Give the backbone structure.
Amino acid sequence: MLRMYGIYADVIGAAERALQSFDETKELLEYPEVQADKAYYLSVLSKYNSLSSLKGTLEGLKDAL
């Protein structure tokens, strides 16, 4: 079990809450309706890329602890 103290627990908790929409965002990219609306697709893609980056950073932080 990962033991977290102080600010690390706060940072990891906040990142995990933000990542709750990661899978949903990833699925949205596959919907034909989303792909048909270029502006919306690009906005979802931008959110996905941000969440993907956050996910990688969070995994790295957890590995370091």
The CA atoms of residues 6 and 12 lie 10 Å apart. The chain is about 80% helix and 0% strand.
